[in-house]
Structure of Aldo/keto reductase:
Amino acid sequence: MSTNSHNGLLQPNQEPSNHRRNFLKTGAVLGSALLAAPGLLTSAAGNTLSAEAASRASLTTPPAALTRRTLGQGKAAFEVTSLGFGCMGMSYHRGPAPDRKTMLRLLQKVAESGVTLFDTAEVYGPFLNEELVGEALAPFKGKVNITTKFGFDIRDGKDRGINSRPENIRKVAEASLKRLRVDAIELFYQHRPDPKVPIEDVAGTVKDLIKEGKVKRFGLSEADAATIRKAHAVQPVTALQSEYSLMWREPETAVFPTLKELGIGFVPYSPVGRGYLTGMLNAQSKFYPGNDNRLGLPRFTPEALKANYPFVQALLDFGQPRGLTPAQISLAWLLARPEQVVPIPGTTKEAHVHENMASLTSNIAQGEWNQLEATLAKSTLVGSRYPPEQETRAAK
């Protein structure tokens, strides 16, 4: 099997084999060393790390660059670490479910590293992800913040559509509190807008839950500017969670001006393009039909995966001389945004946690980011985010 000259990642039509395992082994050693000595990151391409030092390094050593950021303002303010953790893929939409005990321990290692923001939702599983997160993070009560979401109609263990009726919001809140093993939900997002329920009623219900001490803060996901304004007028919104990455920058024009005006934070999900911007997927990639929603996403057809490879190549070309992987470039770019942005990358591999954490120590000038953005602007993104029936759930 041949690889290209940039970090040994896959070409658009290259058949994956054991390359990913090799990458993970390298990432585990390099990432551990980076966490132990973050200053090594910028020179990683040219330095040889001590195997002994790498073996001693641990994910439980918090990187110095893991700073704090505040989402929202006033009574809705929410202080968290600059990088959060998305838990969904540990049990939902990302292939065969990994070993549960392994995921429990990985979540605990992430918490031990200093990360305070963990994101889940009732629909992930459904319920399984909240249960996993609740069990894993119970020993860290008071030290970490778990956010979750409502807004789906889950019956007989299946997603039956959208449901943000007040009685369902209350039902979800009570159940999530038990599954997460917490006294109050730190940030309760509406997962998707419900066209049948006025957003004012949704915000009002969460406001009541806040008064009752069951919820601390209110958030929205994939909401448009008008919806955000209406909700915020009833109950201050702490954060909006929507897809945002170097491949998908629509929020910049669609909602960022409103968020800035109202003092609302932004939590990007899929910050590495559902894995595509890692450079580990191509036209030959296969997705598990039983539990990987990318199989049905237009942007992940073989044709789209091939057509969009220039985005990955640009990250490879940009990262290689700086000793950074495409994923690290993707996260570092988000962390350099002037807005109140807190990415929540997720993974089931400890090596990828190391890799993601190391992005915190990058030191890239704005002029360099401008050059990368100009390069990416030359490429046209192929494939919509969701199939039509799901696209209607997300605000434009």
Residues 1-8, 15-58 have pLDDT under 50 and may be disordered.
